[in-house]
């Protein structure tokens, strides 16, 4: 009877140690997966003016006919987020309240730049309260920044220099433009790559 108790105790300890080794291995794998799947910021997909370049200067009019200047020093001394969108883009539609929220929280100016038929823009504007956001219909602006996919964001500093840009399909992508500027890295991908290199 005593021998059976000793054997069962030894087997329990062997099983416990085995489970511990497996758990440590799993924890290591989860850590590796977490690092490899770190959140990605806005992806740069265009070949237009680069980060650090002065933005093209454009004198445009918003949908209401008021003058809008893009590029050059900002009259209000704030950063400007240019959001290239389309009235029929479902992702852009979902991002609109997030854009408004970020603009308020970060105290930045926002100019939404779109293209398409006038009636589509009217429908979009009838169903959305722009607040302080300016809405510009301009194919010229899209060509000047060489935007190929939407929604696409370009962050300009108060002097009109491009600080961050990229495809912005989610709130995280939008926030990554601001974070990229605050950290001094051109993009979140560059920041992650530098961090991995340092580690």
TrEMBL record:
Keywords: Membrane, Transmembrane, Transmembrane helix. It holds the Pfam family AhpC-TSA. GO terms for molecular function: antioxidant activity; oxidoreductase activity. It is a single-pass membrane protein. It is found in: Membrane. Pathway: One-carbon metabolism; methylamine degradation. The keyword Iron-sulfur does not apply. InterPro entries: AhpC/TSA, MeN_DH_accessory, Thioredoxin-like_sf, Thioredoxin_domain, Thioredoxin_ResA/DsbE_sf. Signal peptide: none annotated. One of its GO terms (biological process) is methylamine metabolic process. GO terms for cellular component: membrane. Residues 49-183 form the Thioredoxin domain. It comes from the Bacteria. The chain crosses the membrane at residues 6-27. NCBIfam families: MauD. May be specifically involved in the processing, transport, and/or maturation of the MADH beta-subunit. This is Methylamine utilization protein MauD. It comes from Paracoccus chinensis. The lineage of its organism: Bacteria, Pseudomonadati, Pseudomonadota, Alphaproteobacteria, Rhodobacterales.
């Amino acid at each position: 009877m005593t021998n059976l108790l000793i054997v069962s105790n030894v087997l329990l300890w062997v099983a416990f140690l085995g489970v511990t080794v497996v758990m440590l291995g799993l924890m290591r794998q989860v850590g590796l997966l977490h690092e490899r799947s770190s959140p990605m910021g806005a992806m740069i997909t265009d070949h237009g003016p680069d980060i650090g370049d002065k933005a093209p200067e454009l004198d445009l009019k918003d949908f209401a006919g008021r003058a809008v200047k893009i590029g050059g020093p900002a009259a209000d001394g704030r950063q400007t987020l240019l959001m290239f969108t389309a009235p029929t883009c479902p992702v852009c539609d979902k991002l609109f309240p997030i854009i408004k929220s970020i603009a308020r929280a970060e105290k930045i100016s926002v100019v939404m730049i779109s293209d398409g038929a006038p009636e589509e823009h009217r429908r979009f504007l009838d169903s959305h309260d722009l607040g302080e956001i300016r809405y510009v219909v301009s194919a010229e602006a899209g060509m000047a920044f060489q935007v190929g996919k939407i929604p696409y964001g370009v962050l300009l500093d108060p002097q009109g220099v491009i600080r961050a840009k990229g495809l912005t399909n989610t709130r995280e992508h939008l926030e990554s433009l601001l974070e990229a500027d605050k950290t001094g890295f051109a993009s979140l991908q560059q920041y992650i790559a530098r961090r991995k290199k340092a580690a």
